[in-house]
Amino acid sequence: LPGLHIFAITLALEVSVGKTNTVMALNNSNVLLPCVFTTCIGFQDLVFSWYFNTTELIYQGKIKNKATEPTPIWHNPRVEFVGSTTKKDNNISIVLNGVEFSDAGKYTCHVKNPKERNAQHNATIFLTVVHKMVETDNTVTLIIVGVVGGLIGLLILFMLIKRVVLFIIKKTQDGKKECLVSSSGNDNTENGLAGSKAEQKAPPKA
Protein backbone atom coordinates (compact mmCIF):
# COMPACT_ATOMS: atom_id res chain seq x y z
CA LEU A 1 0.00 0.00 0.00
CA PRO A 2 1.25 3.53 -0.76
CA GLY A 3 2.74 5.37 2.19
CA LEU A 4 3.82 2.21 4.00
CA HIS A 5 7.48 1.63 4.80
CA ILE A 6 9.40 -0.68 2.51
CA PHE A 7 11.38 -3.33 4.38
CA ALA A 8 14.42 -4.75 2.61
CA ILE A 9 16.63 -7.50 3.97
CA THR A 10 18.93 -8.06 0.99
CA LEU A 11 19.63 -4.40 0.22
CA ALA A 12 20.62 -2.89 3.54
CA LEU A 13 23.20 -0.22 2.74
CA GLU A 14 22.84 2.75 5.06
CA VAL A 15 24.90 5.92 5.44
CA SER A 16 24.86 8.13 8.53
CA VAL A 17 26.47 11.40 9.66
CA GLY A 18 25.46 10.95 13.32
CA LYS A 19 22.74 12.39 15.52
CA THR A 20 22.88 15.90 14.07
CA ASN A 21 23.41 16.94 10.47
CA THR A 22 24.70 20.44 11.24
CA VAL A 23 28.32 21.33 12.02
CA MET A 24 29.64 24.72 13.12
CA ALA A 25 33.27 25.65 12.45
CA LEU A 26 35.44 28.60 13.37
CA ASN A 27 36.89 30.55 10.45
CA ASN A 28 40.44 29.36 9.61
CA SER A 29 40.11 26.16 11.71
CA ASN A 30 40.04 22.48 10.70
CA VAL A 31 36.66 20.76 10.85
CA LEU A 32 35.69 17.08 10.99
CA LEU A 33 32.86 15.97 8.69
CA PRO A 34 31.75 12.59 10.11
CA CYS A 35 30.30 9.73 8.08
CA VAL A 36 29.89 5.96 8.60
CA PHE A 37 28.15 3.29 6.55
CA THR A 38 26.60 -0.06 7.45
CA THR A 39 25.86 -3.07 5.28
CA CYS A 40 24.53 -6.48 6.28
CA ILE A 41 26.06 -8.66 3.56
CA GLY A 42 29.45 -6.95 3.45
CA PHE A 43 31.04 -5.00 0.63
CA GLN A 44 33.40 -5.46 -2.30
CA ASP A 45 35.09 -2.67 -4.31
CA LEU A 46 32.89 -0.13 -2.55
CA VAL A 47 33.25 3.47 -3.79
CA PHE A 48 32.54 6.46 -1.54
CA SER A 49 32.47 10.13 -2.48
CA TRP A 50 32.14 13.48 -0.73
CA TYR A 51 30.43 16.36 -2.56
CA PHE A 52 30.21 20.06 -1.76
CA ASN A 53 26.85 21.64 -2.64
CA THR A 54 25.72 18.49 -4.49
CA THR A 55 27.95 18.76 -7.59
CA GLU A 56 31.54 19.59 -6.57
CA LEU A 57 33.54 16.41 -5.83
CA ILE A 58 36.01 17.01 -2.98
CA TYR A 59 37.01 13.42 -2.10
CA GLN A 60 36.60 9.98 -3.63
CA GLY A 61 37.94 6.67 -2.33
CA LYS A 62 37.62 2.94 -2.90
CA ILE A 63 37.58 0.05 -0.41
CA LYS A 64 38.40 -3.44 -1.72
CA ASN A 65 36.95 -5.33 1.28
CA LYS A 66 36.61 -5.29 5.09
CA ALA A 67 40.23 -6.39 5.57
CA THR A 68 41.69 -3.41 3.68
CA GLU A 69 41.81 0.32 4.36
CA PRO A 70 40.38 2.79 1.81
CA THR A 71 42.60 4.03 -1.00
CA PRO A 72 42.06 7.54 -2.41
CA ILE A 73 40.99 7.92 -6.04
CA TRP A 74 40.98 11.74 -6.00
CA HIS A 75 40.82 14.48 -3.40
CA ASN A 76 40.91 18.23 -2.99
CA PRO A 77 44.32 19.23 -1.47
CA ARG A 78 42.56 20.75 1.56
CA VAL A 79 40.64 17.55 2.33
CA GLU A 80 42.18 14.84 4.52
CA PHE A 81 40.75 11.34 5.00
CA VAL A 82 40.63 10.35 8.70
CA GLY A 83 38.39 7.27 8.65
CA SER A 84 39.10 3.55 8.88
CA THR A 85 37.19 0.48 7.68
CA THR A 86 39.20 -2.32 9.31
CA LYS A 87 38.04 -1.27 12.79
CA LYS A 88 34.49 -1.76 14.18
CA ASP A 89 32.82 1.15 12.36
CA ASN A 90 33.06 1.63 8.61
CA ASN A 91 34.25 5.19 9.12
CA ILE A 92 34.71 7.32 5.99
CA SER A 93 35.02 10.72 7.70
CA ILE A 94 37.08 13.58 6.32
CA VAL A 95 38.67 16.75 7.72
CA LEU A 96 38.41 20.05 5.87
CA ASN A 97 41.55 22.09 6.60
CA GLY A 98 41.71 25.90 6.84
CA VAL A 99 37.96 26.50 6.73
CA GLU A 100 36.85 29.74 5.03
CA PHE A 101 33.45 31.45 4.94
CA SER A 102 33.03 30.29 1.33
CA ASP A 103 33.16 26.66 2.58
CA ALA A 104 29.78 27.02 4.31
CA GLY A 105 27.14 24.87 2.67
CA LYS A 106 25.98 21.30 2.09
CA TYR A 107 28.36 18.31 2.22
CA THR A 108 27.12 14.94 0.98
CA CYS A 109 28.68 11.60 1.85
CA HIS A 110 27.74 9.09 -0.89
CA VAL A 111 28.38 5.33 -0.94
CA LYS A 112 27.92 2.77 -3.74
CA ASN A 113 28.27 -0.97 -3.02
CA PRO A 114 28.54 -3.32 -6.07
CA LYS A 115 28.04 -6.35 -3.78
CA GLU A 116 24.47 -5.16 -3.04
CA ARG A 117 23.44 -4.83 -6.70
CA ASN A 118 25.13 -1.41 -6.82
CA ALA A 119 22.94 -0.12 -3.98
CA GLN A 120 23.56 3.58 -3.30
CA HIS A 121 22.85 5.70 -0.26
CA ASN A 122 23.94 9.08 1.03
CA ALA A 123 23.72 11.41 4.00
CA THR A 124 24.11 15.18 4.24
CA ILE A 125 25.84 17.61 6.61
CA PHE A 126 25.32 21.37 6.64
CA LEU A 127 28.43 23.37 7.57
CA THR A 128 28.21 26.86 9.08
CA VAL A 129 31.34 29.00 9.37
CA VAL A 130 31.45 31.66 12.11
CA HIS A 131 33.76 34.47 13.36
CA LYS A 132 33.68 33.19 16.94
CA MET A 133 31.99 30.47 18.93
CA VAL A 134 29.21 31.47 21.34
CA GLU A 135 28.42 29.29 24.35
CA THR A 136 24.80 28.23 24.64
CA ASP A 137 23.02 28.74 27.96
CA ASN A 138 21.54 25.54 29.40
CA THR A 139 19.32 27.41 31.90
CA VAL A 140 16.67 28.28 29.27
CA THR A 141 14.22 25.71 30.64
CA LEU A 142 14.54 27.09 34.17
CA ILE A 143 13.99 30.65 32.88
CA ILE A 144 10.84 29.53 31.03
CA VAL A 145 9.48 27.97 34.24
CA GLY A 146 10.39 31.11 36.24
CA VAL A 147 9.03 33.71 33.80
CA VAL A 148 5.94 32.01 32.43
CA GLY A 149 5.23 30.57 35.84
CA GLY A 150 2.96 27.90 37.19
CA LEU A 151 1.17 25.43 34.97
CA ILE A 152 2.41 26.64 31.56
CA GLY A 153 6.04 26.40 32.65
CA LEU A 154 5.52 22.91 34.04
CA LEU A 155 3.68 21.89 30.86
CA ILE A 156 6.63 23.03 28.72
CA LEU A 157 9.02 21.16 31.02
CA PHE A 158 6.83 18.03 30.79
CA MET A 159 6.79 18.27 26.98
CA LEU A 160 10.60 18.56 26.89
CA ILE A 161 10.98 15.51 29.17
CA LYS A 162 8.48 13.54 27.09
CA ARG A 163 10.39 14.39 23.91
CA VAL A 164 13.67 13.18 25.43
CA VAL A 165 12.04 9.92 26.63
CA LEU A 166 10.50 9.29 23.19
CA PHE A 167 13.87 10.00 21.56
CA ILE A 168 15.59 7.45 23.87
CA ILE A 169 12.89 4.84 23.11
CA LYS A 170 13.29 5.45 19.37
CA LYS A 171 17.10 5.11 19.58
CA THR A 172 16.71 1.85 21.55
CA GLN A 173 14.37 0.49 18.89
CA ASP A 174 16.72 1.61 16.09
CA GLY A 175 19.52 -0.39 17.71
CA LYS A 176 17.41 -3.57 17.50
CA LYS A 177 16.71 -3.22 13.76
CA GLU A 178 19.75 -5.29 12.78
CA CYS A 179 19.50 -5.96 9.04
CA LEU A 180 15.92 -4.83 8.60
CA VAL A 181 16.22 -1.38 7.09
CA SER A 182 13.21 0.85 6.99
CA SER A 183 13.27 2.97 3.87
CA SER A 184 10.74 5.78 3.77
CA GLY A 185 9.98 8.50 1.24
CA ASN A 186 11.94 11.27 2.94
CA ASP A 187 15.33 9.59 3.35
CA ASN A 188 18.39 10.01 1.16
CA THR A 189 18.27 6.67 -0.64
CA GLU A 190 18.95 6.68 -4.35
CA ASN A 191 18.95 2.98 -5.12
CA GLY A 192 15.72 3.05 -7.10
CA LEU A 193 13.66 0.98 -4.68
CA ALA A 194 9.95 1.65 -4.63
CA GLY A 195 9.16 4.26 -2.03
CA SER A 196 12.72 5.54 -1.88
CA LYS A 197 12.38 8.55 -4.20
CA ALA A 198 9.60 11.12 -3.96
CA GLU A 199 7.00 10.60 -1.27
CA GLN A 200 4.08 8.45 -2.36
CA LYS A 201 0.62 9.84 -1.70
CA ALA A 202 -2.37 7.67 -0.95
CA PRO A 203 -5.10 7.79 -3.63
CA PRO A 204 -8.03 10.07 -2.73
CA LYS A 205 -10.97 8.30 -1.10
CA ALA A 206 -14.13 8.05 -3.16
From TrEMBL:
Which Gene3D superfamilies does the UniProt record give?
Immunoglobulins
Q: Which GO terms describe its cellular component?
A: voltage-gated sodium channel complex
Q: What is this protein called?
A: SCN4B protein
Record's compositionally biased regions (Polar residues): 181-191
Q: Which gene encodes it?
A: Scn4b
| Molecular functions (GO terms) | sodium channel regulator activity; transmembrane transporter binding
Where are the stretches annotated Disordered? 178-206
Statement: the UniProt record of this protein carries the keyword NADP: no
Looking at the UniProt entry, the stretches that span the membrane are: 140-161
Tell me where in this chain the Ig-like domain is found. 2-126
Q: Which PROSITE patterns match?
A: IG_LIKE (PS50835)
**Record keywords: Disulfide bond included?**
yes
Q: InterPro entries, from UniProt?
A: Ig-like_dom, Ig-like_dom_sf, Ig-like_fold, Ig_sub, Ig_V-set, Myelin_P0-rel
The species this protein belongs to is Sylvia borin
Task: Provide the alphabetized UniProt keywords.
Answer: Disulfide bond, Glycoprotein, Immunoglobulin domain, Membrane, Signal, Transmembrane, Transmembrane helix
Membrane protein topology class? Single-pass type I membrane protein
Q: What is its main location?
A: membrane
Q: Name one GO biological process term.
A: regulation of ventricular cardiac muscle cell membrane repolarization
User: Where, subcellularly, is it found?
Assistant: Membrane
